[in-house]
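Co-fold these.
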Amino acid sequence: MPVRTKPVRIFESDHAPLRLLAELERRSPQEVFHAALAEYLVSHRDKLAAKFADTQRAIASGDLDALTAQLVESAEAQADALMATLPENR
Amino acid sequence: MEVGSHGRDGELIPRITRRCLTDDLGLPAESVDLAIDELASANDVIAAFRDRRAETGSAGQEPIRSLLPEVVAFSLHVGRRRGATWHHREAGVIWLLAVGYHREGHPDDAYAYFERLKAAGRLLPERDDMLAFVRSQAPTLARSLLNDVPTLVAAARENPGVVHSGMIGGRVRVRLVYEAGDPAMLTVAISQRLFPGEMPMPADWLVRVAAAFLPDTPPERLSVAFDLAGQELEPDEVAFCDFVG
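Predicted complex below.
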């Protein structure tokens, strides 16, 4: 029985998924959003693929400390984003 | 089905600024890293803050006029003490900004004190407070990725074609579906908005949550999907999928 979900690979070495998603950009806001996200994922492919694999390793070994450390990596950027929302900075 | 650490609708994350903890409540600076329940057991103002603001999701009823219009903070009454609490909507956080004694007409009155702090730029959370808040979320999210995700995936596998919902670490809404087939496919839709609040999901958290649901997928095989087994995604969702054994 075929599955109904249509997958589009994002870390492939060619840009076929991106081209496909760009075509979809003319269809709906959701697809535009996906195209933008896919473009981001493709342009940061190496970095994000490494994070994906790092997380899989931490999960496979049940390493809570490693996983926690990974999730803290973006803390500085998140803190900056939150600071920008304070009334005095709006 | 819903699993994971749930953030109830309307619930706010309670945080106390480091300045308030040290200067107003006399607690050590390191206490900024303690859980609210630990802090509440040591201080009745913090206990009231947790019970009347965070758990009820109430920003407050009585705005502190002297702080308006820049800061819409509310007064928390605990005996003669007054606290200034502020709902940081974007972050989904209710902050305890300052605490003082109410002495009508006295220069040290709590409300005059709050106003002086605001004028000095010391009332609202500082960057260190934000950093401490963000870091405090990581252990809970990590535990949930380790413990709750396998439970959700197992439930989805037991009910092929049925969309399951969950909340990871009280912050990340997910929906997933297992489609029986040859080969079978697992698809997980991840909300791009952190709950509670309005902040976007950090890109690296998105990838890490996806990795937890697809632990055997080589990165080069990771795929996005435009639907959940034929059902439309929510506007704020991104879906990842892979064929699974």
